[in-house]
Design goal:
The chain has 593 residues and is mostly helical. The chain folds into 3 domains: 320 residues, no CATH class; 118 residues, Methane Monooxygenase Hydroxylase, Chain G, domain 1; 135 residues, Phosphate transport system protein phou homolog 2, domain 2 (Methane Monooxygenase Hydroxylase, Chain G, domain 1), CATH 1.20.58.220. 81% of the residues lie in helices and 0% in strands.
């Protein structure tokens, strides 16, 4: 009965250790405000920087799995290239060994003065300090810091609990029997891999080994294969995170597996060949926490040194394992569309700043597709082809799918605990994507109206076509400027859209009146007249939605709540009157002549 109770307490210690790591990692990522992801992105130009960054971020987050999952998400979103992700993953493997070096501190012993600084004393102090910070914090940032401090305290408390309980297992015959089986390299590697898959933390597996080492019955022959196995088992998290991702995301997870698998094979061959031929004098000696931590670190450092020069070969190996599908030129639009969808990865939604950037890129892609449909529809007016109309339909379907995906992604993102600026950005992006989707709808209506004209053999007169072409050019430039506004967020571009809107209003009214006069004198028939007015209305609506996007982007840029068109125009006339006047003159010169 006592043994059962001890095992339950040991499992409780493991749970505390893992939970402490999770709290520390989660709150550190939250307090970083997306800086971890930005740091990872910024080091892609140098593989040595990538290696060091992988080490430092994993030391900070206390989880190689967390770093690797972030990297998989960044590759899936096409923010990181596969080759640039490889050194970061190698660095993460080294960084995770720092946890075992920290946990070895629980074995410190010394005078009463030194004992004041051991984890056994520091752990409860940290928990109390963290609790006070979370209870009396006046801002969210301080609460997060308090939770981080609690995480460190729980991490140490879990390890101390494991050590206290495990030290009483030295006389259990069953434990000695199990451990003797693990000295078999195959069984030891499998055990290490399975335990790590189960607890989802290589550091926790090493921590369990370190705790059991206090019994005095853990030897090098037992420790080495288990540590090698846990390095394979830790790849399970990244592999699971890549499911449903792009091929490059899956390749990134395979990099993690190949790195640890190749390193394990190299170590197994060297160690057991040497042991068989010559023999290590310390092979059956008992190990302590420090020796376990040192071997864990040595394995990852040496594996990195050996494999670092072969980053290109590892990349090729993953490319061979996960091959690209063959595509024809007809698949280009669909391929680009699928690629854009990868940016809306759920893994990225846990990184608000990156998720907002990715969402913006996807919405920009919606605008590009809508502009392409609007432009291709105008081509149909002169040269109608069913094949071209079918491509417009495909792009419209792509816009609708992107609309569904990005709205779902942003709604989920908005439900998270965001900063005020992030919340305003998400709200603005929801408004912007709705407007781009409507522009896409009007571009599709444009093409269907021309199809209807083709079926009824309706044609514009030379005068009507010339007048419509001018308004079309205004609308087309409005879409292109709007896409540029979202991309560059230049206030002058926003003023240009306002100028295009004002110019279009005057010209559309003028063209309507001119067309009515043509109808009266018989220069155009009624059916072509109706078609002309309908197409003018489509252009007018497109420009309206472009202006709505510029207003929403203004809020996005200035971190403020939405304003009405009237309020927006008052701001324009009050602060940008001269620029607006110049833009209107440019419009008259460009479109009215």
């Amino acid at each position: 009965m006592n043994t059962v109770i001890s095992i339950i307490k040991l499992l409780g210690g493991v749970a505390l250790l893992i939970y402490g790591m999770k709290i520390l990692s989660t709150n550190l990522k939250q307090i970083s405000g997306g800086k971890l992801e930005k740091i990872l992105i910024s080091v892609t130009d140098n593989k040595f920087k990538g290696l060091i960054t992988g080490i430092l971020i994993t030391v900070a987050t206390q989880s190689s799995s967390a770093t690797t999952v972030i990297v998989v998400g960044l590759v899936n979103a096409e923010i990181l290239k596969l080759r640039n992700a490889i050194p970061i993953i190698m660095g993460a493997n080294i960084g995770t060994t720092i946890t075992s070096q920290i946990l070895r501190l629980t074995s410190l012993e010394g005078s009463s003065w030194i004992s004041l600084f051991t984890p056994a004393v520091i752990a409860p102090i940290l928990i109390v300090i963290g609790l006070l910070l979370t209870q009396f914090a006046k801002n969210k940032r301080m609460t997060t810091v308090g939770q981080m401090v609690i995480g460190v305290g729980l991490l140490f408390t879990g390890m101390i609990t494991m050590v206290d309980i495990a030290s009483g297992f030295s006389e259990l015959p069953i434990l000695s029997e199990i451990l003797s089986k693990l000295s078999n390299p195959i069984l030891g590697v499998l055990a290490g891999a399975l335990i790590t898959l189960l607890v989802q933390s290589s550091a926790a597996t090493v921590g369990i080994l370190q705790a059991l080492s206090t019994t005095g019955i853990i030897t090098y022959s037992t420790t080495i294969p288990v540590i090698l196995g846990q390095n394979i088992g830790t790849c399970g998290t990244s592999i699971l995170s890549s499911i449903g991702g792009s091929k490059n995301a899956k390749r990134t997870a395979m990099v993690h597996l190949y790195f640890n698998l190749i390193g394990t094979i190299i170590f197994l061959i060297f160690i057991y060949s040497f042991q068989f031929l010559i023999g290590f004098p310390f092979w059956e000696e008992a190990v302590d926490m420090g020796k376990i931590a040192n071997f864990h670190t040595s394995f990852n450092v040496v594996s990195t040194i050996i494999l670092f020069p072969f980053i290109g070969l590892i990349e090729k190996l993953t490319m061979i394992t996960i091959r690209d599908n063959k595509r024809t030129s007809e698949d280009d639009d669909e391929g680009d569309y699928l690629s854009v969808l990868n940016m809306l990865d759920e893994r990225v939604s846990k990184m608000p700043s990156l998720a907002i950037t990715n969402s913006t890129n996807v919405i920009e892609s919606m605008g590009v597709l809508a502009e392409k449909n609007f432009r291709k529809s105008m081509f149909l007016l002169k040269d109608f082809q069913t094949k071209k109309l079918d491509k417009i339909q495909q792009r419209e379907d792509a816009i609708d799918r992107l609309d569904e995906e990005v709205v779902e992604f942003l709604v989920k993102l908005g439900s998270l605990d965001l900063s005020k600026q992030e919340s305003v950005s998400v709200t603005a992006l929801l408004k912007i994507e709705t407007e781009f989707e409507k522009i896409g709808d009007y571009a599709y209506k444009f093409s269907k109206k021309i199809e209807n004209m083709h079926e009824k053999n309706i044609q514009f007169s030379e005068f009507a076509y010339s007048d419509f072409e001018k308004i079309y050019n205004v609308a087309e430039d409005a879409i292109l400027t709007t896409i540029r506004v979202l991309k560059k967020r230049d206030a002058n571009d926003i003023i240009e859209i306002e100028a295009l809107k004002e110019f279009a209003e005057m010209q559309i009214e003028k063209n309507r009146n001119a067309h009515i006069q043509r109808l009266k004198v018989g220069k155009c028939n009624v059916e072509s007249g109706i078609a002309f007015l309908e197409l003018l209305t489509i252009c007018e609506k497109v420009i309206d939605h472009c202006l709505n996007i510029s207003i929403a982007t203004t809020n996005y840029m200035n971190n403020e709540n939405f304003v009405t068109k009237q309020e927006f125009r008052k701001k324009v006339y009050k602060t940008k009157t001269e620029i607006l006047k110049n833009k209107l003159n440019e419009c008259n010169h460009k479109y009215a002549t």
